[in-house]
Design the sequence.
């Protein structure tokens, strides 16, 4: 309440109400949402029934939406979403940091497994760490955002390599080699190719004390709406915390999380490519 001399004025903040809606716009948005939910195109009669709108109004709205490429008409006179939405969604995705999409899923994976979670991208032939969520464990790993690792020495690196074009990875390995870090490190190209084939078959990469003794990682790729590999996500744990018997269970958690993030980026498949 705001008071002035000799009078008092009560300011009431009103919440948005349906009475302020633009009816035609409201119906247009409802039509778009209905078409998005349906697997197959819809005829005018079906749209009118689902949206509860007269045919005359429906035709005006549909023609307007079609004129702006928000919907397309099929040869048999039915309607489906148009390509304009692909343009808009791509624009939105390009303006947003992948970490914004991934953060809640990374948090969920950390809470579900109890392990530290990393995200990395391919940069100049190396795995570049772009995000990290530290677990509540008393053990803290020395990895940090901005750190780089050779592809064969980390879970994220192996996942990125496995799902990248083979010729690209072969050139990277020719340039950087496969230096040995531990007794478990993969040091030959033929062995690395075999490992990448196994990764694609199971949908996630395992790094078993190959970069550091006593540490295991499990990683999976992240794809965007163009079916392009953009990053990889991983969990990192001590060997004593992650047994061989638990790897498949945790691996599937990592894979599921990577698919969820990928779908937020517009990826439409339920599995990652095998070949």
Sequence:
């Amino acid at each position: 309440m705001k008071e002035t001399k000799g009078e008092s004025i009560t300011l009431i903040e009103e919440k948005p109400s349906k009475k302020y809606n633009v009816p035609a716009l409201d119906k247009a948005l409802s039509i778009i949402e209905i078409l998005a939910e349906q697997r197959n195109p819809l005829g005018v009669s079906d749209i009118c029934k689902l949206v509860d709108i007269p045919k005359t109004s429906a035709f005006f709205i549909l023609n307007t939406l079609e004129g702006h490429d928000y919907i397309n008409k099929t040869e048999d006179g039915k309607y489906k979403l148009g390509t304009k939405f692909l343009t808009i969604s791509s624009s939105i995705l390009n303006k947003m940091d992948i970490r914004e999409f991934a953060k809640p899923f990374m948090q969920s994976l950390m809470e579900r497994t109890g392990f530290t979670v990393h995200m990395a991208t391919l940069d100049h032939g190396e795995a570049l760490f772009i995000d990290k969520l530290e677990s509540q464990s008393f053990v803290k790993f020395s990895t940090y955002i901005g750190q780089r690792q050779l592809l064969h020495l980390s879970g994220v690196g192996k996942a990125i390599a496995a799902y990248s074009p083979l010729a690209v990875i072969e050139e990277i390995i020719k340039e950087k080699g496969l230096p040995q870090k531990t007794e478990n490190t993969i040091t030959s190209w033929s062995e690395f190719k075999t490992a990448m084939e196994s990764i694609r078959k199971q949908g996630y990469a395992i790094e078993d004390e190959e970069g550091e003794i006593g540490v295991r990682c499990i990683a999976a790729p992240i794809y965007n709406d163009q079916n392009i590999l953009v990053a990889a996500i991983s969990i990192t744990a001590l060997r004593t915390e992650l047994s061989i018997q638990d790897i498949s269970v945790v691996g599937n958690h990592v894979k599921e999380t990577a698919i969820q993030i990928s779908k937020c980026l517009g990826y439409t498949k339920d599995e990652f490519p095998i070949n």
Observations:
- DSSP finds nine helices and ten strands in the chain.
- The beta strands are 2-4, 7-9, 71-73, 79-81, 116-123, 126-133, 148-149, 205-208, 215-223, 229-238.
- Residues 1-17 have pLDDT under 50 and may be disordered.
